[in-house]
Write a structure and sequence with these properties.
With 324 residues, the protein is α/β, with parallel strands linked by helices. It has 2 domains: 223 residues, Spore Coat Polysaccharide Biosynthesis Protein SpsA, Chain A, CATH 3.90.550.10; 71 residues. Helices cover 48% and strands 17% of the residues. It has 10 helices and 8 strands. The protein has an 8-stranded mixed β-sheet, sandwiched between helices. Helix 9 packs antiparallel against helix 10.
Length: 324
């Protein structure tokens, strides 16, 4: 981070990657051209967080780092997922401002960054991109919009809708995030929970140009569920609601069975309908409370084990001292 007012301010860009050999060079080139053009008044560091890629991505990153000291590389010992890897890169960032996540495939367009920097210089500590348009199928677009609005409605903090981790944050916000001890950080929620002055910039989220997305349906579901669990009580409330509905349906079935047996005796042995309804009733109640307890215990269990956020195999072009 710069300390002299006469020095150029430093912008950190964090890019998590996994098997992105087709994209990482173009990704860095796009950032470098911005800082040779519109952002020439600023210095930058580009932090690539490689999640144990199995293709030639690590070799390409080594070559890029050898050619440009502004390229810094974190090689993870295994794949820890994009959010953990990205958050770890954010902890290493030294900039006066940090672009939290710039995707290697450039689905979040780099040309938005100069406007983000201008807004930051105007005094906003958080400048987040709003994916006003998406170049993807109508089904996934609808599911994402529904999810974002669901999280915002039930979250304890005001998380902007249609916003991802493509956000430029001030050093003050980054320092607050350094204090977070979270086994699975939901980064956009953590930034929102910090507060500070914020503004938004709408843009079009582009379709991937090269390569295939590594986020499969299971990973998207896992990431979405993490956001719900981290900042809302919705999953626990749904378990409770499901149990109560089952219990109510069981009680209704008991009444209906009783009426039927009174009108038409001999359909079932005495007591069997009541016993069946009671089993389902108490099963529903148990499901509700086990669901509530299970969510709490799962979150507590993962947090108290205090495993490292990621395990780093190698750091390239970083200062010798580790981050606090």
């Amino acid at each position: 981070m710069t300390t002299d007012a006469n020095q150029r301010k430093l912008i950190s860009i964090v890019t998590p990657c996994y098997n992105e050999a087709e994209n990482v060079e173009e990704c860095h080139r796009a950032i470098r051209e911005l800082f040779e053009g519109e952002l020439a008044a600023y210095d930058f560091e580009h932090i690539f967080c490689d999640n144990a890629s199995t293709d030639t991505t690590p070799e390409i990153l080594r070559r890029m780092a050898a050619a440009d000291r502004r390229v810094k590389v974190i090689l993870n010992a295994r794949n820890f997922g994009p959010f953990r890897s990205d958050f770890n890169g954010l902890l290493h960032a030294k900039g006066d401002a940090v672009l939290v996540l710039f995707a290697a495939d450039q689905q979040d367009p780099p040309e938005v960054l100069p406007e983000m920097v201008r807004r930051w210089q105007e005094g906003y500590e958080v400048v987040y991109g709003i994916r006003a348009n998406r170049e993807e199928g109508i089904v996934m677009r609808g599911v994402r919009k529904l999810y974002y609005r669901l999280v915002r409605k039930f979250a304890e903090v005001d998380i902007p809708v249609d916003a991802g981790e493509f956000q430029l944050i001030d050093r003050a916000v980054a320092d607050q995030l350094r204090r977070v001890d979270d086994y699975y950080p939901y980064i956009r929620g953590l930034i929102a929970s910090c507060g500070f002055r914020r503004t938004s910039i709408p843009y079009t989220w582009r379709a991937r140009r090269r390569g295939l997305s590594k986020n499969r349906l299971y990973h998207l579901f896992d990431q979405g569920l993490n956001g719900l669990i981290s900042f809302t009580n919705l999953p626990m409330r749904l378990c409770l609601l499901a149990g109560l509905i089952i219990a109510a349906l069981s009680a209704t079935a008991a009444v209906v069975n009783s009426v039927i047996n009174l009108m038409h005796r001999g359909i079932a042995p005495p007591g069997i309908p009541t016993l069946t309804a009671a089993v389902f009733f108490f099963g529903g109640v148990q499901l509700a409370f086990l669901g509530v307890l299970g969510e709490y215990i799962s979150a507590i269990h993962s947090q108290v084990r205090r495993r490292p956020l990621v395990v780093e195999r190698e750091l390239i072009n970083f200062d010798p001292e580790p981050p606090p």
